[in-house]
Amino acid sequence: MSSIAAADFADRIRPRLLAPDAAHAAPRFRIGFGADEKFLDVAEVGHRFRPAAVLVPVIDRPEGATVLLTERCAHLPDHAGQISFPGGRLEEGDSGPVACALRETEEEVGLPSGHGVRIVGALEMRGTISNYRVTPVVGVLAPFAALAQEGEVARIFEAPLDFVLDPANHEGLRVSPADGRARRMYAIRYEEHFIFGFTARILVQLSELWWGDAYNPDTSVLGS
User: What is the Cα–Cα distance from 204 to 164, expressed in whole angstroms?
Assistant: First the structure.
């Protein structure tokens, strides 16, 4: 698979994404993976899932686009040591999911407040096992000097966009590496990094949109 230019990715994926505010205001959200995936109604169970947003930061590099990811510190109460997108819970001052995602990205990885981010769109809200309902916001931005937030982010790295979108790199798991419990989920291995759960599912969903009907990974473990 050849390198993917950030502009080509944005142009191809934009019509298949939602407006971020519309995604955040949707009456339902997804939860689970594979055969366990289902929709939940915000009106019924939304009070148990705190609203949040993440930025899927696609870095526009001349040699090919990358995705910026973080490794969370091992002592954190939620998703300790796992690979994540920058993001977090919506706060009272946030005007919506885009504002939340950009604020959290500035806090977690030092994205300068004046650094232009071209918002491409958003994926559907998705619930997490830590009881958040997250709006994933996709944005394209120029490279910047990332700086990990002390005490929360242990490491920042970039993975090539063509690698994470390649179905050949998508695996299915039946046991969560986080707690050993039986859960269906996706995983992507990049160098020494093991991306799984929510973060891998978002990347797989973008791959599904990128490839369309041609998306055909060997993830039969996620079936019924």
Answer: 8
Q: Which domain holds residue 111?
A: 6-164
Q: CA 116, CA 161: separation in Å to the nearest integer?
A: 20
Structure tokens at 60: 């526009």
* Residue 138: CATH number of its domain: 3.90.79.10
Model confidence at 182: pLDDT above 90 = no
* pTM for this prediction: 0.92
Higher pLDDT: 223 or 91? It is 91
Identify the band that residue 37 occupies on the pLDDT scale cut at 50, 70 and 90: confident
Q: Which residues of 105-139 are buried (b: 16+ CB within 10 A; e: fewer)?
A: bbebbbbeeeeebebbbbbbbbbbbeebbbbbbbb
Name the domain count of the chain. Answer: 1
What count of residues does the chain have? 224
Q: Is residue 186 part of a domain?
A: no
Does residue 211 sit within a domain? Answer: no
Percentage, residues of the chain above pLDDT 90:
72
pLDDT in tens, 143-160: 999 998 887 888 999 999
> In this structure, is residue 151 part of a structural domain?
yes
Backbone angles phi, psi at 68, to 5 degrees: -85, 130
Task: With respect to residue 194, please indicate whether it lies within any of the assigned structural domains.
Answer: no
Task: Supply the Cα-derived Rg of the chain in whole angstroms.
Answer: 16
Report pLDDT for 103.
95
- As a whole number of angstroms, the distance between CA 1 and CA 142 comes to 23
